[in-house]
Structure to design on (174 residues):
């Protein structure tokens, strides 16, 4: 399967990634799963970065596992101004080579390194998600769907810095 033929769902609507990108550079924020408190926090942080990303320059979408209803509910619950799509089969994660982690990477490691922060965030978990060992990341696709930037989590507590993501988006102007 090609990247462009990956089917994503939002609410009851199904679209291929190529239709969503539609000739525009696109920043994909890939969640580990919809119940991951760090991923949810990262979506909110991304929302805060939108003032620094021109809509003409790049569009932003979130991607989670699950179904279209879950994706739309997540988007609405977090009051995001960018859409969140579901990848019910995990195809996009495979196409972008976003790996599965070990139990150490998704639970024990982050908890031992920052136990208080992990405990605080665990209170925010609302549902377990589909594949709790799936790692997430951030991918910037060009208008022709070439990967320009790819950040893959090393563990569940690992997210790219805002400056790093904004610097990747800024390369679109060059």
């Amino acid at each position: 399967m090609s990247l462009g033929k990956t089917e994503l769902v939002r609410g009851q609507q199904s679209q291929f990634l190529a239709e969503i990108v539609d000739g525009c550079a696109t920043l994909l924020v890939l969640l580990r799963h919809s119940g991951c408190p760090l991923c949810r926090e990262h979506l909110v942080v991304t929302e805060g970065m939108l003032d620094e990303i021109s809509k003409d320059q790049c569009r932003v979408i979130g991607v989670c596992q699950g179904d279209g209803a879950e994706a739309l509910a997540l988007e609405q619950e977090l009051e995001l101004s960018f859409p969140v799509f579901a990848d019910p089969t995990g195809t996009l994660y495979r196409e972008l080579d976003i790996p599965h982690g070990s139990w150490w990477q998704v639970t024990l490691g982050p908890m031992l390194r920052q136990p208080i922060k992990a405990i605080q965030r665990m209170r925010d978990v609302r549902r377990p998600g589909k594949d709790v060992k799936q790692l997430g990341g951030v991918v910037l696709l060009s208008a022709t769907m070439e990967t320009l930037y790819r950040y893959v989590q090393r563990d569940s507590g690992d997210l790219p810095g805002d400056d790093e993501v904004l610097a990747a988006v800024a390369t679109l102007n060059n």
User: Anything to note?
Assistant: The mean pLDDT is 83. The first strand starts at residue 7 and ends at 10. The beta strands are 7-10, 13-16, 26-30, 59-64, 84-86, 137-141, 147-152.
